[in-house]
Amino acid sequence: MVQDEAVIGCTGELLIGTRGTAGPGELLVCVRGGSETFLAWSREPLPKGATVLVIESRGCRTVDVIAWVDPLDALDGDAVGAG
Fold this sequence. Notes:
By secondary structure, the chain is mainly beta. It is built from 1 helix and 7 strands; from the N terminus they run βββββββα. The chain has one helix at 77-80, and strands at 11-16, 18-19, 25-31, 34-41, 45-46, 51-59, 62-67. The N and C termini lie far apart (49 Å).
């Protein structure tokens, strides 16, 4: 199957939580100037509303994801402009 390389590395939100290896969820991701949905598989269950990172494309609008926490969210707002 042909991979959709444009979506790899994108983050998105789970519209339907994943069930780990027991079944996929549904992912909404901004790609190609719009929003698209994909079936999303993960190793461990992830809840609805979780932010995820696309790590692989299986083709046929199906991707592998992992939980994602933006590392910039951990920065203190005062430290960003310091220097």
